Amino acid sequence: MPSLPWTSHATERPLKKLDDQVHAGLADLAMGLSPISLALAQADWAMHLAISPGRQLHLAQQALALSLQGALRGVQGRADAPDHEVPDTRFADPAWQNWPFSALKAGFQASEAWWREAAQVDGMTHHHRHLVDFFARQSLDALSPSNWPWTNPTVLQSGIASGGQTWIKGAQRYLEDWRQLQAQQLCRDPACTEDTLAPLPFAVGHDVAATPGKVVFRNTLIELIQYLPTTEQVHPEPLLIVPSCIMKYYILDLSPENSMVRYLVQQGFTVFILSWRNPEAADRDLGMQDYLQQGVMAALSAVQQRTGAERIHALGYCLGGTFLAIVAALLGGRQRAALSASTPHRRRSDTVPPDALPQLASVTLLAAQTDFSEPGELGVFIDEDQLKTLRESMANTGYLSGKAMGGSFQFLNSRDLVWSRNTRRYLLGQDEVGNDMMSWNADVTRLPERMHSEYLSSLFLNNALAIGHYRVANEGVALINLSAPLLVVGTARDHVSPWRSVYKIHLLTDTHTTFVLAAGGHNAGIVSEPGHPHRSYQMDSVDKGHPWVSPDDWAAQAPRYEGSWWTAMSAWLKERSSPAVPPPAIDPAQVLCDAPGTYVLRRYAD
User: Fold this and answer.
1) Which of 220, 241, 414, 463 gives 20 to 30 Å between its CA and that of 376?
2) Do residues 248 and 443 make contact, with C-beta atoms less than 8 angstroms apart?
3) Does residue 344 register a pLDDT over 70?
4) DSSP H helix total and E strand total for the chain
5) What Rg do the C-alpha atoms of the chain give, in angstroms?
6) CATH value at residue 498
7) How does pLDDT run across 470-490, given as a tens digit for each residue?
């Protein structure tokens, strides 16, 4: 667009900078969210409610009925949840049965029920209804009487019984966390590494990420680790694991007793895993194409070169699974094109030529979405103005900080990850029982500006992969071309990749598909080692040409099994593997260093 006569690019730049500064300030006040998106959602709700007197009357009647019901329950001191409520662990202590705490609990639960109903107003857009409902729940969770010392009977009783010691310990915990936060704020050096940050509770390479292996390939984006065999024979088809780049890879190689990597090695597989480099500001221009080509495709090529295998099993977790599905569909399209004697168009800039990539013996996707039309709670962060706000924030740094990303995931489940934790730590003075997953969760990663923006815009906002508009190296990608057998795993309480969204891959592909619905959430449901108590899963398979079965119908009829789904995964992979042979030797000339490598050790304060 040409400049107006009285303006110039020299004057436009500072004016644009002024806009960016104002937008950034408003976003900070709104906890990194777009205040315009939030205001539009509230206005949509308020205006539709204002012109709906019948709905207003209904909500008034509901408020009166819930108030009377809550008052009656509070007086009676009943501890059971109302008929419409799932039992709430925040109020599990029998002390909540006693007045006045029973009245506080009943009034709070009545407010929750009313707001759930009030957020549903006809005429609102789906996204605005989602925003209003989500933030109403977040606000109520913050105001829960369980979060405050003078309204929580457990806090009062424990403090009195201990002579105030639990309150003193809670205050000490708060001061410890505050000092640690201040120390993190002081460490902003781009070269801030393991040595300058507080050590993790579980040391990487010693307590976690400790499965023996060698780094056998490295480029500017990834390290490739090959694990040492522990069985006399292995299946000829190696297994490449593609973790998500929004997390350190060792979520799949935690302590030895709950390491998926170690388990698969013990099952007779030659296992490789991709370790993403933690980016810095200079990596701001790394995009989706880089992560697909220099990441997944380069790793596939390296595995084939180092083992000589013609066929490879591939497994992807979370965003890594989405990346893997894209590459698998691309390879399937190339294979179909080769069979039809046509030559697919390829840019000269491709980093990995088609003939350097192996055939996929199988594809396993763990909590990985390929259709983003129903992304669950993450959808509250995805609209045009939210992405604009995020781009403005990343423009100042060149990346999305690990702290910001971790905060977003905490925000999605703030009841358990923020408020319940604060109650235990600061009000009850309880020490946290640390574990390897909590240590891993504190080891945050960044995402490059361009990659994160492209990922949210193309996949979440425009759903380009599901509708066939996504391209890699100038080639169209259609998931229908994915020809390898699929093992797809969803988890029942996943806030990041809802299992019904993961299940939609049945609509997008036409190949043998085994679907597993595991107990647990996005992380705990995947890290479900054999022997873990209270674990179960459902599993069923369909072949090529299968009819559509809705997710709820599938869940109603799929067989249920007790125990870990890892055993079923191992059996499924073995069925699609060749007879075992002696393990391939690792060429010493290709070894760069011991596992866990160097990229996983890079940490930043933000």
Assistant:
1) 241
2) yes
3) no
4) 21, 15
5) 26
6) 3.40.50.1820
7) 999 888 999 999 999 999 999
CA distances from 547 to 90, 504, 513, 538, 554 (A): 43, 13, 12, 19, 12
Asked, for residue 417, whether it belongs to a domain, the answer is: no
End-to-end CA distance of the chain: 38
Reading the block at residue 235, the tokens are: 């299946």
DSSP per-residue letters across 237-303: S-EEEE--TTS-GGGGS-SGGG-HHHHHHHTT--EEEEEE----GGGTT--HHHIIIIIIIHHHHHH
Tell me the whole-structure pTM to 2 decimals: 0.87
Which amino acid, one-letter code, is at 228?
Answer: L
Residues 353, 348: Cα–Cα separation, whole Å: 9
Q: Which residues are catalytic?
A: 318
Closest CA to 257 of 489, 516, 436, 434: 436
Same domain, 462 and 548: yes
201 lies in some domain: no
Tokens matching residue 584: 């391939």
What is the spatial distance between Cα 540 and Cα 519, in angstroms, rounded to a whole number? 15
**Strand ranges inside 31-169, DSSP E:** none
Nearest to 521 by CA among 556, 559, 473, 489: 489
Q: Which H helix or E strand runs over 594?
A: strand 593-594
Per cent of the chain over pLDDT 70 is 86
Domain region containing 134: 32-158
Is 331 inside a domain boundary?
Answer: yes
Distance of alpha carbon 522 from alpha carbon 12, whole angstroms: 45
Q: Tell me, what's the pLDDT at 342?
A: 47
Cβ within 8 Å of residue 588, ≥6 positions away: none
Distance CA(374)–CA(445), nearest Å, equals 25
Instruction: Give the residue among 79, 121, 128, 83 at the shortest CA–CA distance from 99.
Output: 79
Look at residue 54 and tell me whether its pLDDT is greater than 70.
yes
- Spatial separation of the C-alpha atoms in residues 56 and 63, rounded to whole Å: 10
Whether residues 52 and 140 fall in one domain: yes
| 120-173: pLDDT as tens digits | 889 998 888 888 888 888 888 888 999 998 999 998 999 899 888 988 988 888
Q: Label residue 84 by pLDDT band (50, 70, 90).
A: very low
pLDDT digits (tens, 9 = 90+) for 425-464: 888 888 776 789 889 988 989 999 999 999 989 998 899 9
